[in-house]
Amino acid sequence: MQRISSSFHAPVFRLRAGLLISALLVAGSVSVFGQQKAERTWPNWMGPGYDGVSRESAWSTAWPDDGLKQLWTTEIGTGFSSLSIADGRIFTMGHAAGRETVWCLNADTGALLWKHDYPEVLNDHLYEGGPGATPTIDGEFLYTLGVGGRLFCFRRSDGSIVWQKSLQDELGLPMHEWGYNSSPRILGDQLLI
After folding, report:
1. What is the spatial distance between Cα 154 and Cα 149, in angstroms, rounded to a whole number?
2. Cα–Cα distance between 163 and 184 in angstroms, integer?
3. C-beta of residue 42 within 8 angstroms of C-beta of residue 23
4. Cα–Cα distance between 72 and 70 in angstroms, integer?
5. For the chain, which has fewer Cβ within 10 Å, the N-terminal or C-terminal residue?
6. 24 band by pLDDT with thresholds 50, 70 and 90
7. Within 10 A of 117 (CB to CB), how many other CB atoms are there?
8. Spatial distance between the Cα atoms of 14 and 120, rounded to a whole number of angstroms
9. Model-level pTM greater than 0.85?
């Protein structure tokens, strides 16, 4: 099982550790640099501009002499889903014990706010397996696509399911060698997958 952590020394995916540090700063946590808390949003894969560039300003360029302080850590399972952030909440996905899970965590504390899980094969062909798509935030809704083609629309506030589809069973879309890994994208009033 992988562990998501803000410590660079933990035996975990280094990318996820770095993403968590960025996510905590962007999400509005009181930073280790002493900046004030402010609401930030990173609503989808590669951020608000779909280009991986933060629009934040006034970042400190001085690192603390004793390094960054780990704010919190939590188990999320195996996978390559990045983080989406809005209103002090972090959304991501992981796989553990034959189940894929959508997580909603408090950005300041790491506390579980809600989760939704469902049975899913790990599909560890040529890589560790697990979900690869990043959840997408649009207003009050959260869209996720699991590695097995389960597409969900959740209410961000409580994780209740608004609707769900199976790309294979209902839409007849073939599964590729590594499963479904495209992050949902909002374009106007359309959801692209």
Report:
1. 16
2. 14
3. yes
4. 6
5. N
6. very low
7. 17
8. 25
9. no
Give the chain as a DSSP string.
--EEES-TTSSS-HHHHHHHHHHHHHHTPPPTT-PPP----B-STTTTTTSS---------PPPTT-PPP--EEE--B-----EEETTEEEEEEEETTEEEEEEEETTT--EEEEEEEE-----SSS--S--PPPEEETTEEEEE-TTSEEEEEETTT--EEEEEETTTTT-PPPPTT---PPPEEETTEEE-
- CB 83, CB 42: distance < 8 Å: yes
Token pair, residue 57, equals 């300003």
**CATH of span 3-52+71-192:** 2.40.10.480
Q: Tell me the domain boundaries of the chain.
A: 3-52+71-192
Buried b vs exposed e over 26-48: b needs ≥16 C-beta within 10 Å?
bbbbebbeeeeeeebbbbbbebe
Q: Are 142 and 91 in contact (CB under 8 A)?
A: yes
Taking residues 11-21, what's their average pLDDT? Answer: 39
118 - beta bridge partners?
A: 100
Confidence grade of residue 39 (pLDDT, cut at 50, 70, 90): low
| Distance from chain centroid for Cα 34 | 25
Residue 139, C-beta contacts closer than 8 angstroms, at least 6 positions apart:
none
Reply yes or no on whether the pLDDT at 18 is more than 80. no
